[in-house]
Design the sequence.
């Protein structure tokens, strides 16, 4: 054990005696601090913007005068997607997902106004966040530091001397790996401290247990990721005759894993599981609606049956004689049917998207970068699952709002329609406050873990694999 | 020039496994890029093909259900406009996955409809498309680096350089020969890919093709000149590799990523949410105010409709309804204009920074020429607005006069198309990348002239 630490300390010292390493580490550290700060600032601006409009929407809703409830159902609500406090750490899909959704009766709208929609293409080159630096650039630094760890000793002829002095291959490999890990931690630890500080400030020093857990898991995952990267760097160096060859191999690996493979896996997923276009999606819902009952169709059999049943139940011969507002009753039924059908189709679409994404989850067993990328997004609540959860919660709110207004209409609006020239019916504005404000609730960390169990397992597999190969590679590695 | 020496140099270059694998990687990923890019656009083409049939069907159903009430019919009926992908869009998919290429609008307030997005998987948007433009912008430079970083140093490290020095007349010529062989190989791959693109993507061979090829060539030359400059510093192979990869990471990853966050921070677009809120309020509040106020404003906008009598005594009329909807648009107009101004500012900022970042510069110009950039989408939105206005002007009189839809010429309102691209900013690319090439090439030549004998 002692030998391992000696080697690790030696690695650390030689690395930092090289001015290039020092410069690179400093530049990266600076980039990290800048990224953290800008991300934090960005979070505050965007969040303040959304909060401002959220409050405005609520205010306007409450200020509406006496109206027919169905007018309110059409006035609807605007919901804004909340950002999790930790999303300044990892932007995830944040910029590519819409921000606002208009919730109205009869109609499910899309989530609009994503940052990507305002970008002229530069966004495709990536966004600077702490996660991006940690996932992409720190491994590159690790590879730069580690490519010569063993091979340069071999080239200089010191490798055989070290091994002759009673140091085992295993000790040498673990020592070198430990040295490189500690190097990367000299960047990682300060950044984590900074993140914790900024995160606490964002949550007004009232940190929640759930967020703290998320952060702990985040730190753990990145630690494992760096260990994997360092292990790979040392192993590649050990198996190559020259440093130059080791460096080339590591750079090829980095480019392939971090730049090329994520795009290819996703593109494959999209091609193998093509999603319907919006037009086809709407048409499919339309045809289902036609089968189950279309309230717009005057000859629809479902609504004819409904009418007959209601008339029979209340023993009247005309809907005008019913003791409640029949129009509201039909609309409540229509909303129930159309929302049910819509939800079915939306779920199918989400499954479709998840099948597309499953490629990158499966590929994380070949590529640790994808594992950490998926996991990190999920832990900072900036992933696909959180997005569709927002959609689902917004839709549930929309449905609740529409049905509440239908209920108000059924109960409080006279069933006898006023004449063409008479004042339209309305109910008191005091009813509006009954509809609570939309508030998105983030899923607890436990659901993140169960949703992303395969990414976690893959990271763990990589970790074990690297440790095992480090432990047993002395059998295959050549000293000379 | 001695052709035999060239032939020998080529042989030497291709002896190296790295050379062949580099070329193979480019070819494979290039063909993959062609395939994925075409597939992506093909899906859009297919949807566009179906669009006109589906619109016809839906209009038919709507007429069946609501034909007696034109106001209600137009409340429900949708008119579509498609942004037809240019053939080049398969080469550079650009923003075509983010921005909708098919917008269906009813006659209601247009501001509430044109920002609707397509159904898309945000994870796919995040990871981006794998098109040929990606291969050119990201992968070609890496292979150029791999081919050139040890141009001089590997010979020095293996001791061959000393031999060359003693036997060859002009060392500069030796280096040029080595470099030109690499340039020729890379360009050969580029030409093969471009020719395949012509046939596979059915690209027209015209001025635009030549311009795009010119831009790509300049971009590739930029990387050669950068690499040549790094070689001229006379350091070890490992040093060169680390330095060049760092350049690649800074130019194509870190700098754009930094600029993106800075851009979002400096030019936020609250106007989007503002427009949304204004449009919604502008229309809905009209239900609760005196009809005459709405109608006065409406006649200010459209004096020609004053001739149709307004049924003020009715508690509801479609006349009033569409005037209210119109107010939603009119009151959101200021917000919409300031939003597009903000986007222009963003565009200018990106263009300015792109002067120093050849990767972004090339990507932006490619998207522009392929009609897959934000500009194109904004123009498409404008076209939709114009089309929407045409629909309004056609149907307003019909509804205001309570006419039947018997004489409506539905043929006039088939799926409308928009198509466009721009080549205006090509000069900016040629100039900026050209200057950057010189910026690295001249010091490199100077370094070699001065110190080549010392290496």
Sequence:
């Amino acid at each position: 054990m002692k030998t391992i630490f000696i080697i690790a300390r030696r690695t650390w010292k030689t690395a930092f005696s090289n001015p290039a390493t020092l410069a690179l580490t400093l530049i990266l550290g600076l980039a990290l601090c800048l990224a953290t700060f800008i991300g934090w600032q960005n979070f505050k601006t965007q969040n303040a913007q959304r909060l401002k409009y959220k409050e405005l929407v609520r205010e306007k809703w409450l200020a509406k005068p006496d109206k027919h409830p169905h007018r309110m159902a059409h006035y609807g609500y605007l919901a804004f997607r909340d950002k999790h406090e930790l999303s300044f750490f990892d932007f995830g899909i944040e910029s590519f997902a819409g921000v606002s959704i208009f919730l109205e009766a009869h109609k499910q709208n899309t989530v609009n106004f994503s940052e990507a929609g305002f970008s002229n293409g530069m966004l495709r080159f990536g966004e600077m966040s702490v996660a991006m630096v940690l996932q992409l650039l720190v491994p590159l630094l690790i590879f730069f530091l580690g490519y010569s760890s063993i091979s340069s000793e071999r080239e200089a002829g010191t490798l055989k001397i070290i091994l002759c002095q009673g140091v085992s291959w295993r000790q040498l490999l673990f020592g070198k790996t430990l040295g490189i890990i500690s190097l990367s931690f000299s960047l990682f630890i300060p950044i984590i401290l900074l993140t914790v500080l900024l995160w606490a400030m964002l949550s007004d020093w009232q940190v929640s247990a759930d967020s703290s857990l998320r952060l702990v898991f985040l730190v753990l995952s990145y630690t494992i990721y760096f260990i994997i990267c360092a292990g790979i760097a040392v192993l590649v160096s050990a198996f190559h005759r020259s440093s130059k060859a080791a460096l080339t191999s590591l750079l090829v690996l980095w480019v392939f894993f971090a730049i090329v493979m994520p795009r290819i896996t996703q593109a494959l997923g999209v091609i193998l599981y093509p999603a319907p276009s919006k037009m086809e999606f709407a048409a499919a819902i339309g045809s289902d609606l036609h089968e189950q009952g279309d309230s717009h169709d005057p000859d629809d059999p479902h609504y004819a049956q409904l009418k007959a049943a209601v008339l029979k139940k209340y023993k009247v011969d005309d809907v005008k004689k019913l003791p409640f507002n029949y129009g509201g009753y039909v609309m409540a039924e229509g909303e129930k049917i159309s929302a049910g059908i819509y939800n079915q189709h939306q779920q199918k679409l989400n499954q479709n998207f998840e099948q597309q994404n499953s490629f990158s989850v499966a590929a994380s067993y070949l590529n640790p970068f994808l594992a950490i990328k998926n996991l990190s997004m999920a832990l900072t609540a900036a992933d696909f699952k959180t997005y569709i959860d927002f959609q689902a919660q917004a839709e549930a709110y929309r449905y609740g709002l529409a049905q509440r207004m239908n209920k108000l209409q059924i109960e409080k609006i006279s069933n006898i329609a006023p004449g063409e020239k008479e004042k339209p019916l309305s109910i008191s504005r005091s009813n509006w406050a009954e509809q609570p404000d939309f508030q998105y609730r983030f899923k607890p960390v436990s659901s993140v873990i169960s949703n992303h169990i395969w990414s976690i397992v893959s990271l763990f597999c990589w970790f074990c694999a690297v440790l095992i190969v480090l432990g047993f590679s002395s059998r295959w590695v050549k000293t000379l | 020039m001695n052709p035999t020496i060239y032939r020998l140099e080529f042989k030497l270059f291709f002896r190296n496994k790295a050379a062949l694998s580099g070329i193979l990687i480019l070819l494979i990923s290039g063909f993959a890029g062609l395939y994925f890019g075409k597939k992506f656009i093909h899906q859009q083409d297919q949807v566009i093909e179906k669009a006109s049939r589906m619109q016809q069907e839906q209009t038919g159903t709507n007429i069946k259900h609501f034909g007696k009430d034109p106001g209600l019919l137009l409340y429900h009926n949708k008119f579509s406009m498609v942004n037809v992908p240019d053939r080049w869009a398969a080469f550079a998919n650009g923003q075509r996955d983010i921005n909708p290429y098919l917008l269906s609008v009813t006659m209601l307030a247009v501001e509430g409809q044109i920002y609707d997005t397509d159904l898309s998987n945000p994870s796919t948007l995040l990871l981006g498309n794998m098109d040929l433009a990606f291969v050119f912008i990201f992968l070609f430079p890496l292979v150029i680096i791999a081919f050139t970083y040890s141009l001089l140093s590997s010979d020095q490290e293996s001791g061959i350089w000393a031999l060359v020095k003693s036997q060859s007349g002009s060392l500069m010529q030796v280096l040029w020969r080595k470099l030109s062989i690499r340039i020729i190989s890379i360009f050969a791959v580029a030409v093969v890919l471009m020719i395949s693109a012509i046939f596979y993507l059915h690209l027209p061979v015209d001025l635009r093709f030549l311009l795009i090829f010119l831009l790509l060539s300049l971009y590739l030359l930029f990387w050669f000149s950068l690499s040549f400059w790094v070689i001229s510093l006379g350091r070890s192979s490992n040093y060169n590799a680390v330095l060049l990869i760092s350049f690649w990471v800074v130019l194509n990853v870190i700098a754009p990523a930094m600029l993106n966050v800075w851009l979002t921070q400096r030019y936020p677009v609250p106007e989007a949410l503002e427009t949304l809120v204004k449009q919604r309020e502008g229309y809905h509040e009209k239900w609760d105010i005196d009809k005459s106020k709405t109608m006065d404003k409406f006649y200010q906008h459209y004096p020609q409709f004053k001739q149709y009598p307004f049924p003020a005594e009715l508690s509801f009329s479609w006349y009033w309804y569409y005037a209210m909807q119109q107010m939603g648009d009119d009151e959101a107009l200021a917000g919409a204009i300031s939003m597009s101004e903000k986007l222009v500012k963003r565009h200018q900022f990106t263009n300015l920074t792109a002067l120093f970042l050849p990767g972004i510069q090339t990507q932006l110009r490619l998207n522009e020429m392929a009609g897959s950039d934000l500009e194109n989408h904004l123009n498409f939105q404008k076209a939709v607005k114009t089309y929407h206005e045409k629909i309004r002007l056609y149907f307003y009189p019909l509804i205001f006069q309570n006419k039947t839809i018997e004489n409506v010429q539905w043929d006039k309102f088939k799926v409308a198309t928009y198509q466009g691209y721009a080549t205006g900013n090509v000069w900016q690319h040629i100039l900026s990348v050209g200057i950057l090439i010189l910026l690295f090439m001249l010091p490199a030549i100077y370094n070699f002239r001065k110190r080549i004998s010392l290496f």
